[in-house]
Amino acid sequence: MTLGNSMLIPIFSDMKSALNISQMQVSLTITVFSIAGAIFIPIVGYLSDRFSRKVIIIPSLILFGLGGLLAGLAGAFFSNAYAWILIGRTLQGIGAAGTAPVAMALTGDLFKGGEQSRVLGIFEASNGLGKVLSPIIGALLGLIVWHSVFFAFPAICLVSLLLTIFFIKEKSNRQAPPPFKKYVRGLFTVFKHEGRWLFTVYLAGGTCLFTLFGILFFLSDTLETKYSIDGVWKGLILAIPLLIMVTTSYITGSKIGKNFEKIKRLQLIGFSLMTLSYASLIFFEKIVPFLLVLAFSSIGAGLILPGVNSLITGAVGKERRGFVTSLYGSVRFLGVALGPPIFSRLMEWSRTGMFFSIAALTLLVGLLILLLLHVKGKDGEKNTKTKIRYKYV
């Protein structure tokens, strides 16, 4: 899923020149992918609860690969290539809807307690690792020809497909799914009682992805237009903030367990770091100090995302986990979808205004976390920890 967007960022300028399209039209190749995913994620989430996770993941990977193949062929051979690329990207978005969000629910099924938090930390780190590797892979493939990036998707999907078929073993004691009306009533009950904090953490995750892809879009354009940095060096620089986020996510996930107070504290620290980083970036234009200051926002995102994953996967029982985690996936997709086009407009408006705007956003979300994130808890052993207790299991 993460390769689906990040791998295109290094080839944007070449795509823009080859297809004779605007910067906004280039950004739509990410937007249509993410919006399609956001729309279909709740649907596949319900279906994964109704049937099984693998039944959804396998055809989703096939569709993702076919969408990439269509986009690649369009770029290589079609006269109206841009329209067909958007169609291919839409198919990829639908396919992506059944990959990472459903895998997150599957992780919740297979692991429990502190081990679940640790594995979800690995999940978020692998998500970030895809973001780290993808601009480098995209830059390398772009050296051949810009549309060769699209042909990488079918190959990667084939490997993922085989690994899923042969190595993912779902538990055999899966209960029969509840009738649709009962399923929906259960979801309404969950969101009625837990909706305030649940939507707050949805917003937290979406904000991290929105600012991340917006900044990458800005940085990709700046590296090429201002510093004339292209190719592999551009991919390596784009990977730096992502690598910092991945490392922080992995460490955070391995340490938080199910300690709600620790999760909330790290979320507040994370949004504070993001706010300070984005507000400070207006004073730095040289690439090295800019990346150093930007690193603090990456650390902040790495502190936030594993805790969000842990909270959401524990919010409901297995029979509705697919929908709840998939709805979070929709929010993440919308964050990715909105990042490039909104940052494109903000870049045209004002560099200073852009950074102050996103700093204000992260400050607001941090305040919402402070005020609204109150999960019902009970004291742990020796009253040293507050552990999450969910009412609807």
UniProtKB/TrEMBL annotation:
Entry annotated with the keyword ATP-binding: no
Principal location listed in the UniProt entry: membrane
Segments traversing the membrane: 26-48, 55-78, 84-107, 151-168, 197-219, 231-253, 265-284, 290-311, 323-343, 355-375
Membrane topology type: Multi-pass membrane protein
Compartmental location: Cell membrane
InterPro entries documented for this protein: MFS, MFS_dom, MFS_Efflux_Transporters, MFS_trans_sf, Tet-R_TetA/multi-R_MdtG-like
CDD domains: MFS_YfmO_like
UniProt keyword annotations, A-Z: Cell membrane, Membrane, Transmembrane, Transmembrane helix, Transport
Cited SUPFAM superfamilies: MFS general substrate transporter
Gene Ontology terms for molecular function: transmembrane transporter activity
Domain Major facilitator superfamily (MFS) profile: 1-378
Database matches in Pfam families: MFS_1
GO cellular component: plasma membrane
Protein name, as recorded: MFS transporter
